[in-house]
Design brief:
The structure is a single chain. By secondary structure, the protein is α/β, with parallel strands linked by helices. 51% of the residues lie in helices and 12% in strands. It has 14 helices and 9 strands. The chain has a 5-stranded parallel sheet with strand order 2-5-8-1-9. The chain has a two-stranded antiparallel ribbon with strand order 3-4. α10 crosses α11. The radius of gyration is 24 Å and the shape is elongated. It starts with 10 loop residues before the first helix and ends with a helix.
Length: 306
């Protein structure tokens, strides 16, 4: 982890901070991120998968020299997986050692085994353990995958930045972590949680912004190839696909084509590599059946006329 850096003091500094880590952010995103840092409020990022929501937390942690703690959400996520649990095996060994050595004070034995020494800190508790001036970046990723019960529990955490461990007491953050919450919109998140956050909705980038992202992330890619890749992906998103490609897939495709020493798109290359871009067979079959060639012809004509 790099040396800790001061938080940005303006929107321009925030945008420059992201740009320095090759993250191309528009003014509205830089503004809400700056306000989130300044006001110490969680930032709620909503949008399709692959548009750069998770990357914000990674870039922020790297640029600020802070530890990144990620809570990957999933159906059935519970407190023991997200917050803390006890090291039961080590506790049992300690109890048996106490009994073997003749310890009979049950209260003392209980205090010993239910101490910090045997507490396993999961992401939530770890995120609350940062020192002043060194609070980590806490990424709560894909919150929409959890159930409403866990969402309600998380609401309490984000309100007071503390958690109660019955055997020890309340553990409160010396300084609130920098919280980034993401959701892919597979279900609605309750308004009560959203109210505690600043909000930014992600959409697919414009062609110009996406091309800049490709130039930054795949600088070795041929300029013509990059332009054709972005134009092709932009047109794909206009189709009624099961899952339109995100920016992450655009970067992957440009990188894969560069590895194949391609300097431009052609029908055979598109057909051979479309699995890098699309992840569902019905979508791949549709593009491979002739629609991909039509889109490619439109891309070639459009760029030639530009």
């Amino acid at each position: 982890m790099s040396d800790k850096r001061a938080l940005p003091q303006s929107i321009d500094e925030t945008q420059a901070l992201l740009a320095g880590a090759d993250y191309v952010a528009d003014r509205s995103l830089a503004t809400v991120l700056f306000l989130s840092l300044k006001m110490k409020r969680p930032l709620f990022l909503e949008g399709e998968a692959g548009v750069g929501k998770t990357e914000i937390a990674k870039v922020l942690a790297s640029a600020l020299g802070r530890k990144l703690i990620r809570l990957q959400c999933y159906e059935g996520l519970d407190v023991s997986s997200a917050v803390y649990e006890w090291n039961y095996a080590a506790q049992m060994i300690e109890i048996r050692m106490d009994e073997a050595s003749g310890v009979t004070d049950r209260d003392a034995m209980e205090r010993n085994v239910f101490s910090e020494r045997y507490l396993i800190r999961r992401p939530v508790l770890e995120a609350l353990s940062g020192a002043p001036g060194a609070a980590p970046v806490f990424l709560i990723d894909e919150l929409d995958r959890t159930d409403e019960a866990f969402e309600a529990f998380l609401l309490e955490i984000l309100s007071d930045y503390q958690v109660t461990v019955p055997e020890i007491g309340t553990i409160k953050a010396a300084e609130p972590p920098i919280v980034i919450v993401t959701t892919n919109r597979t279900r609605e998140i309750h308004d009560a949680l959203k109210r505690r956050c600043l909000y930014h909705g992600f959409d697919y980038p414009t062609a110009a912004r996406e091309l800049e992202i490709v130039h930054r992330k795949v600088p070795q890619a041929n300029a013509r190839l990059s332009a054709e890749v972005v134009a092709f992906v932009q047109k794909l998103r206009g189709l009624d696909l099961f899952k339109a490609p995100g920016v992450a897939e655009t970067i992957d495709w440009a990188g894969a084509l560069t590895e194949l020493d391609k300097v431009a798109l052609d029908p055979e290359t598109v057909s051979d590599t479309i699995g890098v871009l699309l992840k569902y067979q019905d979508d791949i079959a549709r593009i491979s059946s002739g629609e991909g060639r039509k889109i490619l012809d439109e891309v070639k004509a459009s760029l030639a006329a530009a």
